[in-house]
Amino acid sequence: MSLAEDQAAILRICFARKPEPADLARLGSAERWQLYRSMVRERLRKLCLSALPRTAKALGEAGFAEAFDAWLADGGPRSRFFWRLPLEFAAHLSASGLSSRPMHRALGIYEAELWRVRHELEKEPPETCPLEFERPIALNPTLRQLRLTHAVLAEPDERGEIPERPTELALFRSLDDLGTRTWTLSPIAAALLERWRSEPTESLTRSVQEVTRARGAAIDAPFLESLGALLAELHQRGLILGSLADRG
Q1: Dihedral sign computed on CA atoms, order 53, 59, 67, 78
Q2: Closest by Cα among 207, 202, 205 to 191
Q3: CA triplet 26, 29, 33: central angle to 5 degrees?
């Protein structure tokens, strides 16, 4: 017997749909390893439930149990970072077809990304200065944008259904209190944020010009007034931090 073979047997005992008697016999006390299997699986189940509560509720107890067992049986955890395991489960759920309903997939994507924003370490915020139109925008480094098929922030109806409606969201952490935030984006806000993310060195003036050109919109007085209000709200919410300051 080798250490690698013992480790492989332990993984099969913990993650297979049903542990093989030969693996249990190989490692000694079958009763002890069955207990260990139950403890490992329950810890992972609770972690995934805490990360994806609405997805689990929408799937139902049996549906969630089947999806969870399938994930473990297909190899289970890969990351050495414990907090990342719900993301692996959510990705498996989406790819496996067990969440065949679009509503389930939308909820799974939303809750997984919200969990990622809450836990993932990000680079330090950039050096900023007050907002200037000839400088690039300084974005909150925790920002994630999602485009979903369902309005995942809406209250479910009596059947547990949420509206099927194209929805664009910004997910981010507040740099003041580290709380997680979610905001439904208007089409113009979504387009601007996407432009600032894809063209981080472009001036605010140029990015506004490119976005309005792509949307066939005119930069007139009403547009500039609404743009000013939007920029103020983005800054107040912490999605933008100002303009990028010169380095050095």
Answers
A1: negative
A2: 207
A3: 85
